[in-house]
Amino acid sequence: MTFRQFAFNNVLRNKRLYVAYFLSSLFTVMVFFTFANFAFHPVFTGGTVDSKALFSMAVAGGIIYIFSFFFVLYSMSSFLQSRKKEFGLLMLQGASTTQIRLMVFMENILVGFLATVGGILLGLVFSKAVLLIAENVLIVNESLNFYFPSLAIGVTFISFMVLFLFISMFVAFILRTKKLIDLIKGDKQSKGEPKANIFLAIFAALLLIIGYGVALTVKGALVVYAMIPVIVVVILGTYLLFTQLSVYIIRKLKGNRTIFWRKTNMLLFSDLSFRMKDNARTFFMVAIISTVAFSAIGTLFGFQSYLTKGMVQANPFSITYFSYADDTDKDINNELNQIQAILNEKDIHSEMKQIALNYYSSPYRDEGVLFVKASDYNNFARLVGEKEIHPGEKEAIVVDQSSKILSYSNPSDQLMESTIKLENGAELTPTAKIETEILPEFNGYYIITDNNYEQLGSPLRSSMYYVWQVDKGQTDKVVEAGEKISEKVPYKAQSVDYNVYQINKTFGPILFIGLFIGIVFFVSAGSFLYFRLYSDLEDDKRKFGSVAKMGLTQNELKKIVNRQTALLFFAPIIVALIHGAVALTALSHMFDFNLMKEATFVLGSFALIQIIYFLIVRLFYVKQLKHAIY
Amino acid sequence: MLKIKKVGKVYEGKVAYRALTDIDLEVEKGEFVAIMGPSGSGKTTLLNIISTIDEPTAGVVEIDGKSPHQLKKNELAKFRRQELGFIFQDFNLLHTLTVEENIVLPLTLDGARIKEMKEKASTIAEKLGIGAIMNKRTYEISGGQAQRVAIARAMIHEPKLLLADEPTGNLDSKASKDVMEMLVSINEKEQTSLLMVTHDPQAASYSDRVIFIRDGKLHSEIHHGESRQAFFQKIIDMLSLMGGDGNDLSSVRV
Ligand SMILES: Nc1ncnc2c1ncn2[C@@H]1O[C@H](COP(=O)(O)OP(=O)(O)O)[C@@H](O)[C@H]1O
Ligand SMILES: [Mg+2]
Fold this sequence. Notes:
The complex is a heterodimer.
Chain A: H1 3-12, H2 15-39, H3 42-45, H4 51-81, H5 84-92, H6 97-138, H7 150-174, H8 180-185, H9 198-217, H10 222-255, H11 257-260, H12 265-274, H13 276-314, E1 319-322, H14 329-345, E2 350-360, E3 369-373, H15 374-383, E4 395-400, H16 411-417, E5 420-421, E6 427-435, E7 445-448, H17 450-454, E8 461-470, H18 475-488, E9 493-495, H19 496-534, H20 537-551, H21 554-591, H22 596-629
Parallel strand pairs in A: 3-7, 4-6
Antiparallel strand pairs in A: 1-8, 1-9, 2-3, 2-8, 4-7, 5-6
Helix pairs in contact in A: 1-6, 2-4, 2-6, 2-7, 2-19, 4-7, 4-19, 6-7, 9-10, 9-21, 10-12, 10-13, 10-21, 12-21, 13-19, 13-21, 13-22, 14-18, 18-19, 20-22, 21-22
Chain B: E1 2-11, E2 17-27, E3 32-36, H1 43-50, E4 58-63, H2 73-83, E5 84-87, H3 99-109, H4 114-128, H5 143-155, E6 161-165, H6 173-189, E7 193-197, H7 201-204, E8 209-214, E9 217-223, H8 228-242
Parallel strand pairs in B: 3-7, 3-8, 5-6, 6-7
Antiparallel strand pairs in B: 1-2, 1-4, 8-9
Helix pairs in contact in B: 3-4, 3-5, 4-5, 5-6
Bound molecules: adenosine-5'-diphosphate (ADP) and magnesium ion.
The site of adenosine-5'-diphosphate has 12 residues of chain B, from strand 2 and helix 1.
């Protein structure tokens, strides 16, 4: 047996130990490859996608790569931690530090190579499915066919071989060979409880309360300024929550004999505090990483629905046409005919209405104020099923658009305060203000009776406004028509369905990339937990083994492990879910747009995935323990 | 061969604990010395210091004229694989390796030739009666066999000093007897110095000299007289004289 043979045998015969490390490396490679496979798809490199999307893809690729680096580094160092005793024994037999480093280096090159090749192969297997999903999320015109991704393979292979080589050197270097006695006793030694300080514990609670308080109360553009300080405060608070507050609580529980000495609680709590230092670090990391994932996905998802829903709300009519003030009747007729022709060609059934928007001079506004006849308004309102308005003879109703975005001054307030003089000498007072989207006027307008309208005199300027309301269930046709219309009659004619389609199309790649990165973060948070759990497996086997000899039923074992694992899996995720909910609430305050549905959907899905993950991992963990003990 | 002078050890912690005080000890070439004492008296601590697993907080350790604690890391590694051999109560074999691979490990680390390793391994395995299990993995063999493998591993590079911490602690009396006889024959034939910590008066009676430690201090020592039986009796007497906690005699097998 040469030294090289020894190093290889050590990996090959010790598969169990290496499997967690190998799988997480494999997974990382697979994710990166899937992304590369997608990013290097001929449809994108062919140039039909705009450069911004390509740039964001490059940035996303970089983020995934850097994240992979730290993730592999972390996996590897926790893997090496669990092998202290082995290193100690080797050194006792006379292995030099150089030899141990060489061994770790060779192992990593071997595992890294297998993980890279395996990750690429696995990625290839799933690539068709991923491209299909991407195609649907992305709304690209060309379909993303399966192709043989030689470029993606090459880039992934080289990137990860470099990464593993670099990490191998790095780890071989930082693998400090401490005193032999520490290595040999390594797995029996507690890393100890972090010191819990009552003041720091209170401080943790305080930081979180302040962070949450600020995040939940600020409104509008202030959210942007509050964001960074709040993030810092909450991260610090989370760290202290796990290192101080939780340790403090566990210690208090341990101090309470009626709880601590009750049935199997002693085993549970003593373990908790024994592993608290390791756990605290894992909890913190998992909580933060998951929060990033939740917030990123929630934000993108919420933003998309804000844009599309906002668009639909602000445009109750399917197609609109708004003439310029200096258009002649001939111009207008010409364009209307074009629109009608396109609608006919696509066989779209619709109902058309028109209105002349007349602006009258006003001492307050140079551009004039819009007055609308009640009959005209009601004509439009009926078309979309909104309430009709019937102002009295002596009054005017002020109408404001409800979907104004981030506006601070409210011009319609001014309309409420001024009175209107008619040509016959009568005076109208504004009596009420309503919000609708029926007419496109940002600065607000008056609705008055038809009789009063005749007494306004001649308008300052005038535009024609036409709307078409199409029958339901023709969205695809309308999108096609909308595209044609906006080509033929740019700016003046709008089709809301086509606009929404356009938003989805531009937003698609960003959403997909965001989703991708979010999932990468979330899944790696999951594997941190897996590592944490499995690094205690041997210890648990020994401990439960000796307790089992004293009489521990399988059910009791299951109960303890259940609680222990549930705590590990849910403590950080619950914190992350709360963080995420607060972040999304703050976001919805910023846009003054209700994200409740989106946030519930995103956070709920993650919670569900975590529960399923927990159930699966626990099943196997308990099985392994039982197998070793009973 | 082995010389230790005024060795002391304090474990730092919340409360510092003095585990060893002013230990002086000399072992000649080819001598077999046993160390006994109640549990917690510092036997393992002393052996760990001699075997360079741990460091003393006071005093010096000299093995064959060299001070291993003063050596640089790489020299120390070389020193361990050429001059020292270790045997533990719980065997400490590497479970990824076969029996044979475990045995040749010190030579592998030293970069020996394959042929030489094979030959040495088979010679020593014959001597220890484990030739038939060379290709088995460590979880497929019994405790007695595992300890013989550990002895083979400790002996294959012909160390000058063999250190054993309760080598028979996990074995039944038949296996204990076999292991002790092997150690004695190695000690006699190869002129290897042997330092062994044990709880077992039976095992200790194979030695040339027994050193007793109590509360981290040397208590007394007795020498092997004419017969093993008489020596055994003297050891038993000394142990009961020393007292200590009763647990210690629980493993006595007469
Ligand atoms: N790492 C350590 N830290 C603190 N005290 C220790 C440590 N290892 C051993 N001790 C203490 O030193 C004393 C001697 O231990 P040891 O040498 O293992 O005794 P034994 O004679 O049973 O082998 C014991 O009281 C033990 O509690
Ligand atoms: Mg001991």
